[in-house]
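Re: your question about Dihydrolipoyl dehydrogenase

S., sorry for the slow reply, the queue was backed up all week. Below is exactly what I fed in.
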Amino acid sequence: MSDQFDLIVIGAGPAGYHAAIRAAQLGLKVACIDDFIGKDGKPALGGTCLNVGCIPSKALLDSSKQFWNLTQHFDVHGITTSDAKIDVNTMVGRKDKIVKQFTGGVAMLFKSNKITPFFGKGKLLKDRQVEITAADGNKQTLSGTNVVIATGSAPIELPFAKFDGKFIVDNAGALDFTAVPKRLGVIGAGVIGLELGSVWKRLGSEVTILEALPDFLGAADADIAKAAAREFAKQGLKIELGAKLLKAEIKGEEVHLSYAGKDGEKQLVVDKLLVAVGRRAYTDGVLGEGTGVKLDERGRVVVDEHCWSGVEGIWGVGDCVRGPMLAHKGFEEGMMVAELIAGKAGHVNMDTIPWVIYTEPEIAWVGKTEKQLKEEGVPYKIGSFPFAAIGRAVAMNEPAGLVKMIAHAETDRILGVHLVGANVSELVAECVVAMEFKGSSEDLARIVHAHPTMSEAVHEAALAVDKRAIHKAN
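Result:
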């Protein structure tokens, strides 16, 4: 006889644990299954995001930013230092402590919400049965009225640059270097490559990022990508576009790379290689025979706009379904599904999901880019404003970047906002709210923004849409 639950969640990452907690809040009997093992060899809730993704990378980004400011920027404030050093083991230990705090926090939330955790690999069987295989090979079966598949994603491994955990690593490996590599190679100039490349560059590594695509940050607005690339170049972060990796060989204590560049085949020798070419849905072995659930050509669970698989009681959320692989997208999908299961309304607006890259300067956006609108034939108008003209930004010694706002040429409704600069990960929230409420650039232009703040750049960009920015020649 299998244990019976109202909801079984396979995966305790951002999407899964949000679904579990919200369902429990709504009075459902919930089980959550996860097979992640932490650095201490014990099961850890929170998935990739809390353990080896969002949270630990931000911890290292903050530590490396402090060191970078100490060695590069404090002199302008009249603060002098000498012989500054970084203890990598202490920095990584701080990161691990933060991870432990948050994964433990999820465990406490499960306990307070009476959610039953199971540790092992979950497999969906027919009739909403879920088989759990523990680390020791023991199996047990649960039965659920509803099942949510929230198995997340895994890093893509290149066949000619396989991970060995020491010289060729994925995102998790790049979080745990025991020393600053003298030369770090990064394959892929996406979010992970730029963030972790930035961490080790600030600490003294010579970083070379190879990007196969011809354009830098093709998903971002072209003006924002151009401004960001300019700042990264100033920092000494070398990014080579149109560079396709052909081979990576470990020779002694080095990694020898061969890649096709714009001028033919080239060679590069590094001490460590981070492969960050993207992630794939982690659905390997999650579906048993006869479930009726389908996977698409990219291995993602096929779902509709409400994350329903088309099979009674089976749902999919987060990185293992369509849409952007973003933790906050998974948060909202998990809660939406829990509410739908409980008979309530649930909705996620894919058009207003913000994107953030936590480099220095930060990059953030919401909505459509200028290129997308042009291709779609949508009439638009643009307002932009540089942080160099914002008093708070200059006082903080953070004048780099700009805010670019795009509104419909006829209705003035905001279609997209794109930002690069200090703390834009926070500033983008105002733009998301405005778009969610179908706001116009006029709305943001007429809202009072505190002075002096970084948010004034958003205000001035809104004013600039109609060529009436105060602190910029229109």
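The chain has three domains: 3-155+280-351, 168-277, 361-465. The mean pLDDT is 97.

Happy to talk it through on Thursday.
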